[in-house]
Amino acid sequence: MTSLTPGAARPGNRPLWLVDLPVVLVAVVWGSSYLAAKELATTATVIALLLLRFVVAAPVMAVVAGRAITRLSARETGAGVLLGMLLSGVLLLETFGVVHTSATNAGLIISLTMIFTPLAEAVATRTRPTGAFLGAAALSVTGVALLTQGSGFTTPSSGDLLMLLAAVARTAYVMATGRMKTVRSTDSGALTVVQFTGAIAVFALASPFAGVSPVTVAAAYSPQQWAALLHLALMCTLFAFFVQMWAVRRTSPSRVSLLLGTEPLWAAVIGVVAGGDRPGLLGAAGAVLILVGTTWGRQAAAPAATALTAAAASEPERPEPLEDGSPEGGSPEATPASQPAGATQGAPPL
User: Fold this and answer.
1) Among candidates 217, 104, 236, which has minimal Cα distance to 159?
2) Where is the EamA domain (predicted)?
């Protein structure tokens, strides 16, 4: 199977909406993850659940990546392990947070990533976000607030703090993925396998200190719970993170973050259809604001993303790597990256 590499498909050769569409699908899949996680997660089983989720996903991703895994350099492997550790931290914070707070608070607090990401990007690039983009982000967050008001706010809890830390960690993961020069021209599938392996190592080391072992949890799962676990592993993990890594290097972190910010909207839609939730008038108004805000934000981010992809498209094609992992005619450091050196790129939930 041919794996997707940045050099194989230049972002400048396709309209931006073709990059946006898979990211929106990730938001839909992640929106569905709350029902699955609520069915599976308890305080005692969070680490076991995450370990099982990645143990299921990693071998499938390894088959998808194929021989590209053997072509990774030591520096690329190290960077992938670091990203995997960041990823494990995000998921631990989010999953424990959801267990210890209401869905309303969790959905609202984690959406602050939409604000944190462009601000972090502005600091990293020493530029000021446009008023239009900040306005769009604020409108989207306001929509999330209305959308998640159905159950009302609860007294701030440890889970609320965990979700706030998860939003910060998610932003750090996005920025690291987008700005690590070592991985800019790395095969997305191979890098995802390394990330999954790094996350598995973290969960495995933490497992002996957890309340229930993964073996016990797996044996106790019903067929319906296994179906939910497979959904988390294959769709919410494998599909979602691969698409995110592929898209983050073809547009800006802020643009990707806004599109992923529609996740609460899809969670509400799935909750209404599959869970019987009734958001009411405030929820419907919030859904409209999210759609308007993300559409406005995409338009505000489009000029920078277009300039970025045009610059990447003007670069010479990346040579095919040799079996030892180095490109023909030079060292990895001499190879043009899939994006210019100063480019920013750019998030994960349950």
Assistant:
1) 104
2) 21-148, 158-294
